[in-house]
């Protein structure tokens, strides 16, 4: 058997793809948050450092008694971003590091942000020794320097993105490898390899899945075993009647006179009837174990239909049929399967009862604590107590079945249908002689057929 094709990575239903996508998004979001926080922190520190430089420069000029010509030449360097201005107390400008006509003629003591010719300047001014010293710097330059410092700080986060994505991919693949191994193990199995899967060294998340699969495999193995046993039993049971039909057909062909021919034809007809009955029972047993469609079923009405269908056979055996079903008995189940159950009970009762007897069918509706019940009573020989467990086995016919043509499948079919509906079967003795088969359904059936139909409509809507 070829292994199942591997799912493509980019499939939107791939767990591997979705895990990688969400982890990558989480990584990107975390990087953005950390990068943003780092950016703001570094930018704030850079601005504080620039303010500190402005203040220290102004204070250093304040502490000097005067500005020597060579110091003034140094301050006039065009490469300096700062502009230093010194005024007298009367407002006369006595020094400027480099000409800048756009700066105001008056200083603002302390910190100030000035907008000059569309550009913001950050300044610090101090008054000392009969003069006012102001140091100013363009905000644009401060911002560029702060941005460069912030970018250098968050660059490692960006460089780590690709290695982290590769690492996440490896972790996702490694974490999902047990699931792939489990799928490959199932794909390599044959149709008859239904032994349980091993849960050794599996992640905790896969243990419930493996347990469910093992439970399903056990049920599948049981169903396959039952099917194989059914096919073997059916083949064995069909071999004898088919052989008998061949022999009876040869007797018809070899008959020397009309009397022998008529007797052989009658025997052939009976054999065909028994074979047809056996095939019908086999098909009914197969259907009873197949898929079902549950609806609201009135057992009382279904019992009437079964008795009408069984009336010709009962009349042929001079057996009277009686029905006691004064009230509807709703149950939630498969109408076809339940019809097979009732039909087999009535048919067995008619076949095993002596001519001139009576078969009674009682249908009792359910209550709040007890489900509906069906009882079929006959006047036949009954079933010995020691055989009442074995009569539900397929193709089993007890002592009561040797003198009556039957397939040994009637009660097996009844039990199969009852199990699927959660019903219980009991075999009891009738006081006047005979057998009573009681089928008790669960008390979860709807209280009326109308309620059951409403329940079905609500479940479909």
Automatic annotation (TrEMBL):
<keyword id="KW-0812">Transmembrane</keyword>
<keyword id="KW-0902">Two-component regulatory system</keyword>
<dbReference type="InterPro" id="IPR036097">
    <property type="entry name" value="HisK_dim/P_sf"/>
</dbReference>
<feature type="domain" description="Histidine kinase">
    <location>
        <begin position="233"/>
        <end position="445"/>
    </location>
</feature>
<dbReference type="GO" id="GO:0005524">
    <property type="term" value="F:ATP binding"/>
</dbReference>
<dbReference type="InterPro" id="IPR050428">
    <property type="entry name" value="TCS_sensor_his_kinase"/>
</dbReference>
<keyword id="KW-0614">Plasmid</keyword>
<keyword id="KW-0808">Transferase</keyword>
<feature type="region of interest" description="Disordered">
    <location>
        <begin position="364"/>
        <end position="385"/>
    </location>
</feature>
<keyword id="KW-0472">Membrane</keyword>
<protein>
    <recommendedName>
        <fullName>histidine kinase</fullName>
        <ecNumber>2.7.13.3</ecNumber>
    </recommendedName>
</protein>
<dbReference type="Pfam" id="PF00512">
    <property type="entry name" value="HisKA"/>
</dbReference>
<dbReference type="InterPro" id="IPR003594">
    <property type="entry name" value="HATPase_dom"/>
</dbReference>
<dbReference type="InterPro" id="IPR003661">
    <property type="entry name" value="HisK_dim/P_dom"/>
</dbReference>
<keyword id="KW-0067">ATP-binding</keyword>
<keyword id="KW-1133">Transmembrane helix</keyword>
<dbReference type="InterPro" id="IPR036890">
    <property type="entry name" value="HATPase_C_sf"/>
</dbReference>
<dbReference type="InterPro" id="IPR005467">
    <property type="entry name" value="His_kinase_dom"/>
</dbReference>
<dbReference type="GO" id="GO:0005886">
    <property type="term" value="C:plasma membrane"/>
</dbReference>
<keyword id="KW-0597">Phosphoprotein</keyword>
<dbReference type="InterPro" id="IPR004358">
    <property type="entry name" value="Sig_transdc_His_kin-like_C"/>
</dbReference>
<keyword id="KW-0547">Nucleotide-binding</keyword>
<dbReference type="GO" id="GO:0000155">
    <property type="term" value="F:phosphorelay sensor kinase activity"/>
</dbReference>
<dbReference type="Pfam" id="PF02518">
    <property type="entry name" value="HATPase_c"/>
</dbReference>
<keyword id="KW-0418">Kinase</keyword>
């Amino acid at each position: 058997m070829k292994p199942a094709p591997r799912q493509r990575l980019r499939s939107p239903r791939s767990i591997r793809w979705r895990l990688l996508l969400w982890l990558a998004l989480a990584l990107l979001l975390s990087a953005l948050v950390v990068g943003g926080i780092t950016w703001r922190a570094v930018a704030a520190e850079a601005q504080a450092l620039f303010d500190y430089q402005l203040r220290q420069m102004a204070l250093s000029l304040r502490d000097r008694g005067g500005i020597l010509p060579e110091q003034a030449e140094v301050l006039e360097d065009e490469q300096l971003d700062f502009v230093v201005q010194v005024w007298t107390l009367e407002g006369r400008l006595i020094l400027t590091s480099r000409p800048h006509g756009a700066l105001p003629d008056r200083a603002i003591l302390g910190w100030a942000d000035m907008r000059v010719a569309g550009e913001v300047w950050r300044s610090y001014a101090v008054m000392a020794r009969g003069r006012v010293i102001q140091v100013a710097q363009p905000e644009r330059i401060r911002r560029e320097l702060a941005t460069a410092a912030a970018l250098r700080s968050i660059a490692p986060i960006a460089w780590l993105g690709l290695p982290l994505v590769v690492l996440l991919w490896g972790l996702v693949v490694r974490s999902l490898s047990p699931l792939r191994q489990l799928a490959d193990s199932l794909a390599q199995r044959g149709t008859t390899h239904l032994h349980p899967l091993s849960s050794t060294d599996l992640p905790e998340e896969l243990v419930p899945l493996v347990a469910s699969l093992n439970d399903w495999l056990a049920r599948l193995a049981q169903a396959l075993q039952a099917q194989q046993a059914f096919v073997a039993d059916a083949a064995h049971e069909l071999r004898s009647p088919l052989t008998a039909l061949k022999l009876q057909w040869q007797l018809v062909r070899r008959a020397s006179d009309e009397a022998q021919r008529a007797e052989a034809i009658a025997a052939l007809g009976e054999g065909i009837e028994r074979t047809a009955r056996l095939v019908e029972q086999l098909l009914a047993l197969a259907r009873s174990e197949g898929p079902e469609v549950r609806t609201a079923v009135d057992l009382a009405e279904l019992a009437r239909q079964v008795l009408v269908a069984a009336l010709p056979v009962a009349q042929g055996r001079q057996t009277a049929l009686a029905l006691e079903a004064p009230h509807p008995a709703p149950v939630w189940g498969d109408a076809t399967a339940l019809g097979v159950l009732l039909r087999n009970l009535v048919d067995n009762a008619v076949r095993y009862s002596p001519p001139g007897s009576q078969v009674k069918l009682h249908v009792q509706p359910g209550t709040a604590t007890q489900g509906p019940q069906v009882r079929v009573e006959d006047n036949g020989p009954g079933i010995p107590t020691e055989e009442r467990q074995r009569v539900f086995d397929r193709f089993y016919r007890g002592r009561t079945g040797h003198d009556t043509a039957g397939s040994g499948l009637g009660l097996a079919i009844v039990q199969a249908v009852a199990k699927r509906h959660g019903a219980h079967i009991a075999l009891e003795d009738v006081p006047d002689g005979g057998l009573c088969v009681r089928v008790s359904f669960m008390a979860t059936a709807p209280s009326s057929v109308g309620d059951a139909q409403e329940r079905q409509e609500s479940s479909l809507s």
